[in-house]
From TrEMBL:
Residues annotated as domain Pyridine nucleotide-disulphide oxidoreductase dimerisation: 356-465
Cofactor: FAD
Organism: Comamonas squillarum
Lineage: Bacteria, Pseudomonadati, Pseudomonadota, Betaproteobacteria, Burkholderiales
Gene3D superfamilies cross-referenced by the UniProt entry: 3.30.390.30, FAD/NAD(P)-binding domain (3.50.50.60)
Catalytic activity: N(6)-[(R)-dihydrolipoyl]-L-lysyl-[protein] + NAD(+) = N(6)-[(R)-lipoyl]-L-lysyl-[protein] + NADH + H(+)
NCBIfam families per UniProt: lipoamide_DH (TIGR01350)
Recorded name of the encoding gene: lpdA
Keyword NAD among record annotations: yes
SUPFAM superfamilies: FAD/NAD(P)-binding domain (SSF51905), FAD/NAD-linked reductases, dimerisation (C-terminal) domain (SSF55424)
Protein name: Dihydrolipoyl dehydrogenase
Extra remark: The active site is a redox-active disulfide bond.
Domain of life (superkingdom): Bacteria
GO molecular function: dihydrolipoyl dehydrogenase (NADH) activity
Compartment(s) of residence: Cytoplasm
Length: 475
């Protein structure tokens, strides 16, 4: 007889492992199935985010930023270093250590919370009495049964049609994080989060980087004023970004990759590079899940169909994170995972899509929450705007990084904050204040009246809120 659980979670990424832990905290018997393997073949919990996404990319961004600071900025502080070199193999090894620390941390949390872990691929077998039978295909195949099932199988990198990833010359985010040396020439297709972050890493190490983007506008999903400020900074750094391109044939051989494309002027171009990173988005991962065995509904994009509470078309089956609708963000998956565990327990889990923050961890960092100025105009919403540049912030001057600004958008009548947009130093941390404020329906006046530490970057947030009412104090 198969082992019985109150909840079986398929997938151990941010949505899955958090859902498993929360369900266990609420007194349920919980199992989590995840197939990710480390180099030794052992379990590597944490999904794409921990293994080939958020965590390793931030480790490489940090290392490469230190290298660039030592090369270009230490002298401004009176620090003489002599010739600075980068050991790429050691940088990659440090990244792998950071990843393993996170993998091991999740295993510890499972033990602490008494979550039973199965290493292998989980798939539906059939509906069972009061639940579902799930097969675990791993080193030893076995079946378990869960009264409630949470699918959190994540997403996979989207490949260009007819151009599969070989992770040698043509790379997904996975291969991009495992390069053994800085290529002389690197191309990226897609000027989104992955493209800009990976492009930044290798540009800092001396690679000639070209980013090819099909859209006519740079980062069209974010506030236009912020996007223009970011683009200006990237151009100055030497990150070559071509917009409005149409990619044609791509050929890879031992020497490298040849990319044929048409530029925004309609001119035929060819770009020869050592490596190509394709970062054109991600697709929901249901490979091997066997949804047809139980009649689990998928949409036309292959994502699992859910309602606003993450319920699927099947009783007792839920789905969260990248495998369902909504932004493919690790923290969105975590919030849905917690909410579903609480809903199973009879509580009222909460996820507010309107206050999910977005961050691009380049330098300068880009972060935002809520609606953009373009969206408010399109929706016919009367609003007030206020901006404040880091150039006028004392802490930013002391850091030696005064790029960018903070921008507030507030309702013209009620003053409720409708959106906050930032580009500049450490704005990935500053955006949380805006998220809290919007979640509690705060006004720009509320932020303007709150005391902020001096000197701190957060003062730019206060000043931008003051700017909504045209009463900044330091600009």
């Amino acid at each position: 007889m198969s082992k019985q659980f109150d909840v079986v979670v398929i997938g151990g990424g941010p949505g899955g492992y958090v859902a498993a832990i929360r369900a266990a905290q609420l007194g349920m018997q919980v199992a989590c199935i995840d197939e990710w393997k480390n180099a030794a073949g052992g379990p590597a919990l944490g999904g794409t985010c921990t293994n080939v996404g958020c965590i390793p990319s931030k480790a490489l961004l940090q290392s490469s930023e230190h290298f660039e600071h030592a090369n270009l900025h230490f002298a401004d502080h009176g620090i003489s270093t002599g010739k600075v070199t980068m050991d790429v193999a050691k940088m990659i090894a440090r990244k792998d250590t950071v990843v393993k620390q996170n993998n091991d941390g999740i295993q510890y949390l499972f033990k602490k919370n008494k979550v039973t872990f199965f290493h292998g691929r989980g798939s539906f077998v059939k509906a069972a009495d009061g639940g579902y039978e799930i097969k675990v295909a791993g080193k030893d195949e076995e079946s378990i049964t869960g009264k409630q099932i949470i699918v959190a199988t994540g997403s996979n990198a989207r490949a260009l049609p007819g151009v599969p990833f070989d992770e040698d010359k043509i790379l997904s985010n996975d291969g991009a994080l495992r390069l053994g040396a800085a290529p002389k020439k690197l191309a990226l297709i897609g000027a989104g989060v992955i493209g800009l972050e990976m492009g930044s890493v290798w540009r800092r190490l001396g690679t000639e980087v070209t980013v090819l983007e099909g859209m006519d506008k740079f980062l069209p999903a974010i506030d236009e004023q912020i996007a223009k400020e970011a683009k200006k900074s990237f151009d100055k750094q030497g990150l070559k970004i071509e917009l409005g391109v149409k990619v044609g044939d791509i050929k890879a051989d031992k020497k490298g990759v040849q990319i044929s494309y048409t530029n925004a002027k309609g001119e035929a171009q060819q770009l020869d590079v050592d490596r190509l990173i394709v970062s054109i988005g991600r697709v929901a991962n249901t490979i091997g899940l066997n949804p047809e065995a139980v009649g689990l509904a998928l949409d036309e994009r292959g994502a699992i169909v859910v309602d606003e509470n993450c319920k699927t078309n099947l009783p007792g089956v839920w789905a969260v994170g990248d495998v369902v609708r909504g932004p493919m963000l690790a923290h969105k998956a975590e919030e849905e995972g917690v909410a579903v565990a609480e809903r199973i327990a009879g509580q009222h889990g909460h996820v507010n899509f309107a206050t999910i923050p977005w961050v691009i961890y380049t330098s300068p960092e880009i972060a935002w929450v809520g609606r953009t100025e373009q969206q408010l105009k399109a929706d016919g919403v009367a609003y007030k705007a206020g901006t404040f540049p880091f150039l006028a912030n004392g802490r930013a001057r002391a850091l030696g990084d005064t790029t960018g600004m903070v921008k507030f958008l507030a309702d013209a009548t009620t003053d409720e904050i409708l959106g906050v947009h930032m580009v500049g130093p450490m704005v990935s941390e500053l955006i949380s204040e805006a998220v809290v404020a919007m979640e509690f329906k705060a006004s720009s006046e509320d932020i303007a009246r709150i005391c902020h530490a001096h000197p701190s970057l957060s003062e730019a947030t206060k000043e931008a809120a003051l700017a909504v009412d045209k009463r900044t104090l330091n600009f």
